[in-house]
Design goal:
With 558 residues, chain A is mostly helical. Chain A has helices at 3-31, 43-50, 52-85, 91-99, 106-117, 122-129, 143-168, 171-179, 184-209, 216-220, 227-237, 242-272, 293-321, 338-346, 348-378, 384-393, 399-409, 422-445, 448-456, 461-489, 495-498, 506-515, 520-545, 548-553. With 360 residues, chain B is of the alpha+beta class. Chain B has helices spanning 42-50, 95-105, 110-124, 139-151, 169-186, 197-203, 221-226, 231-236; strands spanning 4-13, 16-26, 31-35, 57-62, 65-66, 80-83, 157-161, 189-194, 206-211, 214-219, 241-250, 256-261, 267-271, 282-287, 293-295, 305-315, 319-326, 329-336, 346-350, 357-359. The chains are: A mainly alpha (558), B alpha+beta (360).
Amino acid sequence: MSRGNLFLAGLLWIVIAILVIYPLSFLVIESFKISGSDNFGISNYIEFFKDAYYLKTFANTLALSAAVLITTTIFGVPLAYILARYRQRGKTILTALTLLPIVLPAFAGVFAFIIFFGKYGTLNLVLMEIGLIEKPVNFIYGFHGLVFIQSLHMLPFIVLSLSAGFTNIDPSFEEAAEVEGASGFWRFITVSLPLCAPTYLAGGVIVFLWPFTDWLTPLILGQVDFLPSVAYINIAYHFTDLHRKYMGIVAVVVSSVVCIFLFLLARRWVEKRKYTGLSKGTTSEGRIIEPGPVMKIWAYIYMIFIAVLVLLIPIVLGLSSFSRRWVFEPLPTYWTLDNYRVILTETPLLIKNSFLFSGVALAFGVIFGLPAAYIIVRTKVPGKNALDFIITLMLAFPGMAVGVSYLLAFWENIPLATHWIIMPLALFARRLPYFLRMAHSSYLQLDISLEEASEVSGAGKIRTFMSISLPLLLKGVLVGVVMFFIMAFQEISTAIFLYRGGWETMPIGIYLNWHRGMEFGIAAAMAFLMIVITFVLLLIISRVSGNVLRAAWGSDNK
Amino acid sequence: MAFIEIKGLFKTFDKVTAINRIDLEIKKGELLTLLGPSGCGKTTTLRCIAGLEKPEDGDIVIDGQSMLAEGFVPPAKRGIGMVFQNYAVWPHMKVFTNIVYGLKLQKLPKREIQESAARVLELVGLSGLENRYPSQLSGGQQQRVALARALVRNPKVLLLDEPLSNLDAKLREELRFEIKDLVRRMNITSVYVTHDQGEAMVISDRIAVMDSGNVVQIGNARDIYEKPANRFVADFIGAMNFMAGEIVEKVPDKPNAYVRTEFADKLLCRMSEHSKATVKDEIYASIRPEDVEVTADRPQADENCFKGTISNMAYLGNLLFFFVKLKNSMIRVQASHQVSFEEGQEVYLHLNPEKSMILS
C-alpha cells in the first residue's frame, strides 16, 4: 500500500470529521442540554417520549410513511412492470414524464396542487360549474392530501427500483414457472415479485424515510403534527425559548435515529439476499412482452393518468407565473409578466446565489468524491469501508439534521456560519453520497488493467489518473455532476436554517414569498424558472448519457 | 411411430429466420440431441417444443396430440419437464419448495407431494438437502435440483437446454453419464440441446446437427462422425482436413471418384452417400487427421501416396500432432505418441481412399 494513498485517505477522513462527524455529534450533544442550566441529561428525551403531543407526531409520521410507501407501491408496481416489460410505442417519453418528480422540487408540487386541487381550485370550480358537486370537495387539505402529494413525489424511486428488478430477473426463472404450470398472475406473485424484493426495498426505504425529512409539505398544507414540521417550528420560530429549541433538536435526533436504523436494516436485508449472480451467463436483457390490445390500452391510460398528474405541476405553475390574482377562477384571467420582472430585475440575487452555492458545493463534491471513489474502489487502505459507510449514511440523514447541526456547530468554536461558505458546505455534506455513488459505480466498470497498462508504460499514478481513468470515467461522473447540481439547486431543508439576509437561494425565496402570503405569483414564477433550469440540465445529461431515464436516476440502477 | 413429431416448423426473430421449416421425429424413450453452433436454431427449436416460443408455421405433435395446429397448447399443458441452461432454480425458495412448485399447482394431496419430492430427490442424490436455499448449494447441486424439478411431475418429455454448460469441465463429464443413466432408467423421451460435440456423442441415442435454422444430418454418433453429410458437419464434429478440388473422373460401378487437388492430379476418394456431386463439381477431398498414414519409407500402396515435410509438431502426451507440407497444402496429422518424427523430416503420406471422403 502506497504512502500516497494513506495520505489521501487521511485527508478525506479529516474532511469527513470536520463536515460530518463533528457537526452531527454536536447535534446529539445539544439534544442532551437542559434549558436554564449547564447540565446535561436525558430529561429532554424522557419528556419527548412521555408527552402525548410528541408521541402523536411520531405516530403520525410513521403512519404517513407507511401510507406513502403503500400508495407508491400500489401505483408503482404496474407502472414499473409496464416500463420494464411491455413493448409499447411512446413508452420512453411517457416514462420520462412519470419519473419527472424525481428532479422537481418537492414544494413545486404542493403549490401546483393547491391551485389545482384546492378548495376553490380549478378542479372544484369546474366540477361545481358542471353541477357534479355542490360544495367544494377537500382534495388535499389533510392527511390524504399529504399522502397524495408525497406519494407522487416519491413514486419514481419505487418505479425505478422495481423496474430495475423486473429487468434484471433472468427470463428463465419465469419460464420455469410457466413450464411448471403457473398462470401469469400466480407466476408474478410467486416468482417475479419476490425476486424484486431486494431492489424494491432499496427504493422503498428511501420512500419511507421521506416523511421524516419533508417538513415543508405538511406546513404548507396546514398539517404541522409531523416530526419534521414540529422540529422546524420549534427550532426556527422559537429560538428564544431554549427549551422548545432543545425539544426540536430532540425531534431531529429521533427522526435521524429512526431513519438511520431503518436504512441500515434495509441495507442488511438487501445484502443478505442478493439474488443476482446466482444465475450465470445467458441473456441479460430481461423479458419483453408484447401486450394484447386490451392490456395495451390500459397500460396507456394508466401511464397517461400518472403523466398528467405530473405534468399538472409545471403547467399550473407556468400559468400561475404569468398571471395575477388567480383565485376563484378555473383558469387565470389577468395575464402579466410582472412576476418575472420582479424576480429577474429586483431579486436576481437569489438566482445568483442558487448557482453560486450549488456550483461551489459541486466543486467540493467533485474534489472530494473522485479521490474518495478511488480510495474505496481501487485501494486497500484500512478504514475505507468505514469511509464508504459514513458517506452512504448521509443518504438517510434528514436534511434538517444537517442544517441544524451546522448552525449549532459552526457558530462559536468554528465560526463558519457567519460566512456564506457555510451554505455550499452544508449542501455538499448533504448530497455527498449522490456524487460518490455515481463515481463509485463508474469506477467499478473501469477495467483496472487499463490503468495498469498505463503504469507499465511508465506513467505515474497521477498521470495515469488524468490521462486514462478520468476520461473513461467522465461519462458516469458527468451524470453524477448534473444530478448533484440539481439536488443541491433545489435543497431547502438544510439551507433554511443557515441562510442570512443576502444569502437566500431560489427555494428559500419561494418559501418566503409563500410565507409572506399573497405573493403567490412570484413564488410560482421562481418555481417555474427552477423547473425550466432543471429541465435544461436534464436535457444536457440525456445528451451525454443518451437516455433521459438514466439521466433521472444515474448509471447505478441500470 | 414417432413420439414427438415436428413438421415444417418455421420461426423468425425480427425477420431473421431462426428455424427454417424443419422436420424431425423423435421416438419414444429416445434421447435426441440438437447439436450446433450458437445461432443455429437449436435452442429455439427446443423452446418451440416447450411452448415458450410460438412458431409462425408448422406443427409439433407430442404423443399424438397437436400442440399448434388445433390451437396453441401452453407449456403447462404439454406434459413436459424442462431444465434450463442457468438452472433457473428460484433463489428465494428452498430446494423442497422449488421441486414441489408444480405439484402444488396441481392441488395434489400433501402426502403425494411429499412422496414424489422424496422420490426425485433420492433419484438425483439430493436427499437431506430439502431445506437448503439454492445459494447454499454448489453449481452441480443446483443443476440436480433443476433436474429433480423437471422430473417430479412425471413428464412425458424431458427438455434439457445446455444443462451442463455452466459447470466446470470435470463435473460436466461426470454429469453427462449421470443424466444419460437417469434418462435411460426412467425411459423418458428427451430432447437435449448442446453445442458441445463431445457431450452430444456421449449422451445421445441420436444427434440432429443443425446449421442456420436447418437440420443438416440426423444419426447416431458413429454415423455422424464417420459419414458426415457435408463439410459443415465434418468440420463441426471432430477435426478434418479439407482439400479443395474438382472431380475429374468417376469410377464406374463403385462409389469412388478421382479428384484433382492443389498437390495431386488424381486423388482417389470415396463418394459420400449424401453427396450428389458429379464430374467438374468443385468439392472438398476430406480426411480426418487420425486417418492419415505417415511413414518414413515409401509405403506399399500404389495410390494416394505423397512425399512431404513435417512441420509444427506438438506432443500432447497420448497423441502427437503435426502438419505435413505437400506443395502449398498443409495436411493435419494425428499419430500415436510412440512414433518418432522430427520437424523438417521428409515423410510419405498415404491418404487411404476408403477414408478420403468427397464433401461439398
